[in-house]
Write a structure and sequence with these properties.
The complex is a heterodimer of chains A (210) and B (169).
Chain A: H1 22-30, H2 34-56, H3 59-75, H4 86-108, H5 113-119, H6 140-152, H7 156-167, H8 172-179, H9 183-209
Chain B: H1 3-13, H2 19-31, H3 33-49, H4 62-77, H5 80-113, H6 117-120, E1 126-129, E2 136-141, E3 146-151, H7 156-165
Antiparallel strand pairs in B: 1-2, 2-3
Helix pairs in contact in B: 1-3
The chains are: A mainly alpha (210), B mainly alpha (169).
Chain lengths: 210, 169
């Protein structure tokens, strides 16, 4: 270990790590094997980037934050005890980095319209139920594009709750702890986010069919 | 359907409701079409999002992305000895510089408060005692420009010594 607490960097070896499982690679990386860590990055980089992109809605920022997450992952590798999978552990690192970044953004700009709606009585309660599935029969690429656009129209609080619940499969209490709010707030934000997303997807369907 | 009922429906969909309440929801859904429609909408949204992230790919090659990560790790590790040296330097600055300043002030104080002696023409008078003959005293007053030499014969000390020996010269 050096003075920063990083594992001392071992020189790259020609050993092929692609056949080793995550646990073996993590143990090797904890001993300072950079080649093993590179293999872990290669395996999980898309997932870590996808989580950052879902939360940030900005490709450049998502790349930067996922890179930062990998650097932090290397720095904190000694703390990883294997209580969860390595992928989950890394995902939590990138989520926390994204939340910090989003909070910084929020301080720099005014509250979003969605957030104001939520505060002023909950427009989602008056939204008509979308009875027809707005994504039925869509190609994968088209579906992705529409969800992408719809997610981009949610406020960061609503989108984050949705991402943590739908993609990270976090329970309400875990989301509340991560976001520093009550379980009730998590429930109402999640409900609003889902209802709003349904309306946005229905609108996109209508617009594209005209 | 009130807001709490709507949230309860969502909790049921997310598997967050206790079992006792969950069975109530099942019964309620069979009776209430509005609740069933809402549940369908929430399910559709949930299903639409499923697998969304699996389609997202990092827009950089493995080699390029890794080179950036590796470079950043090495950059953070490289300044470690520099930082250590800087910390010694900062300790030096933190303690030695104020200590040196205090010492300098003390030395300056001593120099300034020292009696200036003959050349300084101090107003303080000076008294000299010739140690070889402690019966002689010289008194100089520079401000008045006078010198007074006091001689005692025989010297007071000699008298005392002779008294102790029992002889008087």
């Amino acid at each position: 270990m050096n003075t920063h607490g990083f594992p001392a960097v071992e020189p790259m070896t020609v050993k092929d790590h692609s056949s080793a499982d995550d646990q073996t690679l993590v143990r090797a990386a904890q001993r300072g094997n950079m080649a093993a860590f590179e293999e872990l990055v290669a395996r999980h980089r898309d997932k870590i980037y996808a989580r950052a992109y879902s939360m940030m809605r900005n490709e450049e920022e998502a790349v930067d934050l996922s890179q930062e997450a990998w650097v932090k992952g290397w720095q904190r590798l000694r703390q990883f005890q294997g209580d969860s999978s390595f992928g989950t552990w890394m995902t939590r690192i990138v989520i926390n980095l994204c939340l910090d970044q989003l909070r910084k953004h929020k301080r720099q700009r005014a509250e979003s319209i969605e957030a104001m709606d939520e505060e002023s009585g909950g427009v989602e309660r008056q939204m008509p139920v979308v009875t027809v599935n707005p994504t039925a029969g869509l190609e994968q690429a088209e579906l992705r594009q529409r969800i992408d656009r719809a997610l981009g129209q949610l406020s960061y609080e609503h989108r984050t709750v949705l991402v943590l619940n739908e993609f990270e499969e976090m329970e309400y209490k875990e989301i509340a702890r991560t976001m520093g709010c009550s379980i009730g707030t998590v429930m109402s934000r999640l409900f609003y986010a889902r209802r709003k997303l349904a309306v946005l997807l229905a609108d996109l369907k209508k617009r594209d069919s005209v | 359907m009130d807001y709490n009922a709507q949230l309860k429906l969502q909790s049921w969909l997310d598997g967050e409701l206790p079992e006792a309440e969950a069975s109530e929801i099942t019964n309620w859904l069979t009776r209430d079409r509005e609740a069933a429609s809402l549940l369908e909408e929430l399910r559709n949204t949930h299903n639409a999002l499923a697998g969304f992230e699996a389609t997202v790919r990092l827009p950089e090659s493995r080699e390029f992305f890794w080179s950036k990560v590796e470079r950043e790790i090495q950059r953070l590790e490289a300044p470690a000895p520099k930082t250590a040296r800087r910390s010694y330097l900062s300790l030096f600055r933190r303690f030695l510089v104020p200590a040196s300043a205090v010492a300098a002030v003390l030395v300056a104080g001593l120099v300034l408060n020292r009696p200036t002696g003959l050349n300084g023409r101090s107003a303080v008078a000076e008294i000299e005692t010739a140690l070889a003959d402690s019966g002689t005293f010289t008194y100089r007053d520079y401000s008045a420009g006078t010198t007074l030499v006091w001689l005692s014969y025989p010297a007071d000390t000699e008298v005392a010594e002779n008294d102790e020996m029992g002889t008087v010269e």
